[in-house]
Specification:
The complex is a heterodimer. Chain A has 15 helices and 22 strands. Chain A is α+β, with helices and mostly antiparallel strands. Chain A folds into three domains: about 1-55 and about 240-315 and about 530-559, 3-Layer(aba) Sandwich (D-Maltodextrin-Binding Protein, domain 2), CATH 3.40.190; about 60-230, Dipeptide-binding Protein, domain 1; about 320-525, Dipeptide-binding Protein, domain 3 (Roll), CATH 3.10.105.10. In chain A, the strands form six sheets. Chain A has a seven-stranded mixed sheet, with helices on both faces. In chain A, a hairpin with a 4-residue loop joins strand 8 and strand 9 (about 225). Chain A starts with about 45 loop residues before the first strand and ends with a strand. The relative contact order of chain A is 0.18. Chain B is mostly helical. Chain B has one domain (about 85-300): MetI-like (MetI-like fold). Chain B has twelve helices and no strands. Chain B has helices spanning about 5-15, 15-35, 35-50, 55, 95-130, 130-145, 150-160, 165-190, 195-200, 205-240, 255-260, 270-300. In chain B, helix 3 packs across helix 5 (about 95-130) and helix 10 runs antiparallel to helix 12. Classes of the chains: A alpha+beta, B mainly alpha. Chains A and B meet through helix 7, helix 9, helix 11 and strand 17 of A and loops of B.
Chain lengths: ~550, ~300
């Protein structure tokens, strides 16, 4: 399953909100909602209501891949390692140290001491191994890509693969040795550690997992049903917040974990309120019904900022692109692909339709990631050159079947129909005939893409973790029907880059392959954006992360 | 006097045709005196002229694009260069409204012609034969009428895929039962009228009675319905486009789609929603006013 599917509602990418600086302690901020129970005891941080676009599907990290679920999982659970606030560098969390040995096939994690799960049980090496073994032994519906998507991304397969298409598992076993968790892999992997920062690898209380039947999943891969209550009512982790109540379609209340091992959360409570409609989220913020929300419409940024709200941008960690299927003529013709690349006025589109801070892309990964090459072949906007290339291609009256999705908005593509129309006008001006094709995003559009049914398509990608394999690797490491056949050496080069343990060599390998990719032009990357969140005046301490690893425990409200 | 002679007399002196002709003249006179009719006619004429001469009237091509003048959420308003301002992609709003009239007219006329043709054929069948043919046709029509028209149109359009053609067919399908029922009812009334009875008693063949006497006399409500159906067709076309069931090409300037596209920028650029909305309202109002006036003018009971 291609990775873009899981983006569900998540928006990642972008800059640190000038956090502390924003602590303009002015007008009463909206901390006093009716949910605020007269906070008399000890530390009083108030309650913050945060507008989300949907309820979590489950609070069991192993089962989810959408941003709304992961946001909640992040507050309740913790992972062995995490990313540095606002970046993609890995730093310790539940593990204080980690060390590879045996040529990168064995990883020893020294665990933090004195950590307890919300149910009072101890966090230890046995608990860590119990979690890994649980994921590794997923069966039936649990093995479908929509359920344990991230396990498949990082570890490929399971103990017993039920779908022959799944690869052999990267995970071999986990043993508890002198308070340390030792994880053995079947082959060396350079991206394994970055992967462990994903909320999908949150360590849950093994006792609670059993007690609340976390493994009881029925239904189908497309529509899994979580029968146990672990993910819906009883998530038990080690995080800075515990679940107080979850009323679907109404609110999800998190309370400060008073027994937390580290710095306790400042806020007493965080309430996630689902508001599906974008304009309604904005109105809720304006009326102080909520004190922050995600997925801010780029067109609203100026107005919100002008009205005194804070805008927090995530660092650009995505790419929007026009993809070709080289199995479909005329996209098998290099000159035609180059002509399309020259015909698109990417700069005009990015300036007109994307928020300030968005940049024109020239390759398939964001500049902040190692392996990004500055000297890839570039295709500047040049209608005459496009026309000349069409003439050279030998294709008379080239017709482009151009697909765009409906009913979807992504950080890299806030309004697909607008992008389509802008590009379509560019292509027509260069002498192409454009045949418009569209389908609802999920499942029709994505299915059409996956099965190679689209000639030319609008799509994009948001990174999950800070590794180029999660960008160019997902697109081009294995042959995919969506792209059609591409230059064969790209596949092998990406395989080699993925396995290379030496960081400097890896970087060089990725830089080289990025140039090779842009020489072949399997698509035209056109934008890296900075998705934004909006907050009320008194909110501070929220650090936007490129990979949406964002912690509410540091957030405070001034009143 | 032979039957033929009687018929000759009938057609020269008191024939229904002449009555209809008289009614037609009468109707025209009354139309000219009705302000409603005049306003309606002016609006309709304007609409048709704009649609037909769109390339001459529009200052720009509908897809002429000045993306460089656009910033997120900021769309230049009316100016001397762009009279109604620019849309979300930097295209001239006025030109798109003007070209939009073409699609509305095209969809309206084609769907009306299609729907009316099938509907009239069915109504004629039911009205002329009566009996089980009537029952069968009318039950089918009842079933179609039982489904709310926009829902029916959405169903048909969704089934046929996104294109202007499917919109036309969808709206035509909605019109079929309306015309069928109307014509059949009107014909039933005429068939029982004295002149039809007289013709029958004289042995005039049924086909002749139906086609030459009953049908022409039953058509006036159909004509009125035709005008009103054009108005409905414009609204339905806009509705379907608004719901994303219009053409697959989003750059086609359909009024309904233009309206839908402004949804997210209502707060920043409310004028962009006003123009297509106004265009829909004015053209629909034109057809309604004309239709209403026509109904009054053609109704013999209202003759004063």
């Amino acid at each position: 399953m291609p990775n873009y599917r899981r983006h569900g509602l998540r928006r990642q990418g972008a800059v640190a909100l000038g956090l502390a600086g924003l602590l303009v302690a002015t007008a009463a901020c909206g901390s006093d909602t009716d949910d605020d129970p007269g906070t008399t005891e000890g530390q009083s941080g108030g309650t913050m209501v945060f507008g989300t676009s949907a309820d979590p599907i489950s609070m069991d990290g192993a089962y989810v891949s959408d941003g709304e679920s992961l946001r909640v999982v992040r507050q309740l659970f913790e992972t062995l390692v995490t990313t540095k606030a606002g970046g993609t560098d890995i730093e310790p969390l539940l593990a204080t140290e980690y060390e590879p040995s045996n040529a990168g096939k064995t990883w020893t994690f020294t665990l933090r001491e004195g950590v307890k799960f919300h149910d009072g049980t101890d966090f230890d090496a046995e608990a860590v191994c119990a979690n890994f073994d649980r994921w590794y032994n997923f069966k039936g519906v649990q093995q479908s890509a929509s359920v344990s998507y991230y396990w498949q991304t990082v570890f490929s397969g399971y103990a017993k693969n039920e779908d022959p298409a799944l690869g052999a598992s990267l995970y071999q076993d986990c043993t508890a040795q002198d308070g340390k968790a030792v994880i053995n892999l079947t082959s060396p992997s350079a991206s394994f550690l970055s992967g462990l920062a994903l909320a999908a690898f949150s360590i849950a209380s093994p006792e609670a997992l059993t007690k609340y039947e976390a493994d009881k999943v029925t239904g189908t891969g497309e529509e899994p049903r979580f029968e146990g209550t672990f993910g819906t009512q009883n998530p038990v982790g080690t995080g800075p917040f515990t679940l107080e109540t979850f009323e679907p379609n109404n609110r999800l209340v998190l309370a400060r974990n008073e027994e937390y091992w580290g710095d306790k959360a400042i806020l007493d409570k965080v309430i996630f309120k689902p508001i599906a409609d974008g304009p309604a989220r904005r109105q809720a913020l304006e009326s102080n019904e909520i004190q922050g929300y995600d997925l801010v419409d780029p067109a609203d940024l100026d107005a919100l900022e002008g009205a005194g709200f804070q805008i927090a941008e995530r660092p650009a960690f995505n790419v929007g692109y026009v993809g070709f299927n080289t199995a479909k003529p005329p996209f098998d013709n290099l000159k035609i692909r180059q002509a399309v690349a020259h015909a698109l006025n990417r700069q005009a589109l990015v300036t007109a339709k994307y928020p300030p801070g968005a940049e024109v892309a020239k390759e398939f990964m964001p500049p902040s990631l190692f392996g990004y090459a500055d000297d890839v072949p570039e295709y500047e906007y040049d209608v005459q050159k496009a026309k000349a290339l069409i003439a050279e291609s030998g294709v008379a009256n080239p017709t482009l079947e151009f697909w765009y999705p409906t009913g979807v908005s992504r950080p890299y593509m806030p309004d697909p129909a607008a992008n389509f129309q802008a590009f379509s006008a560019d292509l027509t001006a260069a002498g192409f005939k454009v045949v418009p094709k569209s389908a609802p995003w999920n499942p029709d559009y994505l299915n059409a893409v996956d099965t190679g049914g689209t000639g030319m398509r609008l799509l994009g990608w948001t990174g999950d973790f800070g590794d180029p394999d999660n960008f160019v690797g997902t697109f081009f490491r294995t042959p995919q029907k969506a792209w059609g056949p591409i230059e064969k050496s790209i596949y092998s080069d990406l395989d080699a880059a993925r396995a290379e343990p030496d960081e400097a060599k890896r970087t060089a390998l990725y830089e080289a392959v990025n140039s090779k990719i842009m020489e072949f032009v399997p698509g035209v990357p056109y934008v890296h954006t900075k998705p934004a969140l909006a907050f009320a005046k008194g909110v501070s301490g929220y650090v936007p992360s490129p990979v949406s690893i964002e912690d509410f425990s540091k957030v405070s409200l001034s009143s | 006097m032979s039957v033929a002679q009687f018929e000759a007399v009938e057609s020269s002196a008191v024939s229904p045709q002449e009555a209809a002709g008289g009614l037609g003249r009468d109707a025209l006179r009354r139309l000219r005196r009705s302000p409603t009719a005049i306003v309606g006619a002016v609006l309709v004429t304007l609409f048709v002229l704009v649609a037909v001469f769109a390339p001459l009237l529009a200052p720009y091509e509908p897809n002429f694009q000045r993306l460089d003048l656009i910033r997120p959420g900021v769309y230049p308003g009316p100016s001397s260069e762009f009279l109604l301002g620019l849309d979300q992609l930097g295209r001239d709003e006025l030109s798109r409204i003007i070209y939009g009239a073409r699609y509305s007219l095209l969809i309206g006329v084609v769907s009306l012609t299609l729907g009316a043709a099938v509907g009239i054929a069915l109504g004629l069948l039911a009205g002329a034969f009566g009996g089980w043919v009537d029952s069968l046709v009318m039950r089918i029509v009842d079933v179609m009428l039982a489904i709310p028209s926009l829902l029916l149109a959405i169903g048909v359009a969704a089934l046929l895929g996104r294109s202007i053609t499917s919109v036309m067919i969808a709206i035509a399908v909605v019109n079929v039962p309306i015309f069928a029922r109307l014509l059949r009812g009107s014909m039933l009334a005429q068939r029982r009228s004295d002149y039809a009875l007289a013709a029958r008693s004289l042995g005039v063949p049924r086909s002749r009675i139906v086609l030459q006497h009953v049908l022409p006399n039953s058509l006036s409500p159909v004509i009125v319905q035709g005008t009103l159906a054009l108005a409905t067709a414009i609204i339905e076309a806009a509705g379907l486009a608004y719901l994303g069931l219009g053409s697959a090409d989003p750059s086609i300037p359909e009024w309904g789609r233009m309206l839908a596209d402004t949804q997210n920028s209502l707060a920043t650029a409310p004028l962009l929603a006003l123009w297509p909305g106004l265009a829909i309202v004015l053209s629909v109002m034109g057809f309604y006013l004309l239709g209403e006036a026509l109904r009054e003018a053609l109704d013999p009971k209202l003759r004063r």
